Amino acid sequence: MTPEEMLEQLAEFQAQADLLELNRQELIDSVKVPDEVLAAQKEANERRQKLDSELWTREKRYDAMTADLLAAIVDPPMPPEFVAAKAEADRKRQEIVNKATHDEDEDRKAVQSLKAKIDADLQAQIAEVYNQVAIRKQEINDEFSEKASGVLDNIAKLTADVKAEVIKVGKSVKGSVYQAVFVKGRVTWNTDMLDGMIIAYPELGKARKEGQPSVTLRKN
């Protein structure tokens, strides 16, 4: 296979790798938090609001009922002989207030417990959804990593072969997509050797060093 043919095959392998990466990214982008999670959040908020509204209604009803019950109790005349009756009336009033306060407290506790359960259920549902999203993305990455492995290996091997062939021919080679630019070995001089030999040995060529040639691949 000529270097030109290798460059064309390299372009084909790279196109395959680019397509795989594009497909992988499209699949990753498509794995999003589903709409049902947003719906669940909205439903949870609506349920919480409903509980708050129902609690407020019951509290207003308790207040109205308590006021009616208290109003129905008429203070007896206050001659000394009716002091005991007054004390009993006060006791009944306090009983009514205490019961209303207790009922309201129990209602609040029940609502708080229900709201806590709503929050816990929602968090558990959301956590599971995000976990499934993460699992799916990892599956996609694993699948495409395996698919791309062979293509990337081909690209690496063919790149090395192209460089080796271009070094053999000693000149740049151009394909339709890539070009292999031949770069001659870098010439360096051993300055320490030159300093010691420049007077006694004018043949400075002995101190000349030439590195190995290299090839750089570029897109046209």
Give an overview in words.
The protein is mainly α and 220 residues long. The mean pLDDT is 82. It is 73% helix and 9% strand. Helix 2 (35-72) runs antiparallel to helix 3. The protein starts with a helix and ends with a strand. The protein has helices spanning 3-30, 35-72, 83-169, 191-197; strands at residues 173-174, 178-183, 187-189, 208-210, 214-219. The strands form 2 sheets. It has a 3-stranded antiparallel sheet, with helices on one face. A two-stranded antiparallel ribbon has the order 3-4. It has 2 domains: 3-169; 174-219, no CATH class.
Distance between the termini: 21 Å
Count, helices: 4
**Which ranges are low-confidence, i.e. pLDDT below 50, for 5 or more consecutive residues?**
none
- Provide the spatial order of strands within the biggest beta sheet: 1-2-5
SSE string? HHHEEEHEE
Question: Largest beta sheet, briefly?
Answer: 3 strands, antiparallel
- What share of the residues does DSSP label as strand, in percent? 5-15%
